[in-house]
Amino acid sequence: MTIKVASYNIRKGIGTDRRRDPQRILDVLTEIDADIVALQEADRRFGTRAAVITPHLLEEHGGWKAVGFGVRALSLGWHGNALLVRRSAVIERCETLHLPALEPRGAVMAEVTLDDATLRVIGMHLDLSGLWRRRQAHAIMNHVAASAHQHPTVMMGDLNEWSRMSGCLRDFAKTFAFADTGPSFHARRPVARLDRIMASPALSIVNAGVHASATARRASDHLPIWAELIAA
User: Fold this and answer.
1) Helical H segments across 35-126, by residue range
2) What is the SS3 assignment for 61?
3) Beta strand pairing status for 153-158 and 117-125?
4) Tell me: domain 3-231, CATH 3.60.10.10, correct?
5) Per-residue pLDDT in tens (0 to 9) along the chain, 232 residues
6) pLDDT confidence of residue 61
7) DSSP-derived secondary structure letter, 138
8) Which of 47, 100, 207, 213 has its CA 20 to 30 A from that of 70?
9) What integer pLDDT is reported at residue 47 of this predicted model?
10) Which sign, positive or negative, has the C-alpha torsion 206, 210, 213, 218?
11) The 3-state secondary structure of 74-127, one letter per residue
12) Would you call the peptide bond into 186 cis, given omega within 30 degrees of 0 as the criterion?
């Protein structure tokens, strides 16, 4: 079975035209048609931290359901990180991961069964500081290694790492393989690989790329990335 995953920093739904348009984000996700999606900046920053993509909008115009972490009543995820899965998927377990940081940062994890395949998925948005990114990477990998249930694992998100293979990228690469997706930032002229998808040895990456449709170039300042995975 091939599972398609995607990661997308949606910038709170604000596009390169400075308009907030959540429907445009869903249009891009429909174009990608992934089984599992990790979103970053999925909630508004202040106040109730309300979700940019409301439950009603997701129900009416999306083929996915949100993994419910139950942290904030109106939020889609945790510190802006959210996971969407096919409506037919079974969410076996989910949790939030508190990360060491100077400013509020976190990651989200879910164990998801699609047909007969169970996959652990982690979504993240790491710090702007290289030192704290490395600390956060170690915290995430330690959490995965200490989990009672071991499943094929995919980690994805906006790592905020501009280097080619140093810092937190080098740390993650000790255990995980990187999908060769290509540059995703800035959406109008992509030059940086800030967004990454990483797979554990139990998974093979068979295809990967950046989704650069006309709608995606307007919907956010990041382009979404995707990868197709199969059990190794």
Assistant:
1) 55-61
2) helix
3) parallel
4) yes
5) 899 999 999 999 999 999 999 999 999 999 999 999 999 999 987 666 789 999 889 998 889 999 998 777 778 889 999 999 999 999 999 999 999 987 888 899 999 999 889 999 999 999 999 999 999 999 999 999 998 788 999 999 999 999 988 999 999 999 999 999 999 999 999 999 999 999 999 999 999 999 999 999 999 999 999 999 998 7
6) 83
7) H
8) 100
9) 65
10) positive
11) CCCCECCEEEEEECCCEEEEEEEEECCCCCCCEEEEEEEEECCEEEEEEEEECC
12) yes
Which two structure tokens, joined as six digits, stand for 83?
A: 């996971």
Q: Which residues contact 32 (CB under 8 A, 6 or more apart)?
A: 4, 6, 211, 224, 226
Q: What is the DSSP letter of 175?
A: T
pLDDT at residue 42, rounded to an integer: 95
Residue linked to tokens 């255990």: 175
Q: Which helix (H) or strand (E) holds 96?
A: strand 90-98
Question: How many other CB atoms are there within 10 angstroms of residue 164's CB atom?
Answer: 8
**Phi and psi for 133 in degrees, rounded to 5?**
-60, -45
Residues in the chain: 232
Cα 52 to Cα 49: distance, rounded to the nearest angstrom:
9
Closest CA to 78 of 114, 40, 116, 52: 40
Residue 18: which residues within 8 A CB-CB, separation 6 or more?
Answer: none
Q: Is the dihedral of CA 207, 106, 118, 201 positive or negative?
A: positive
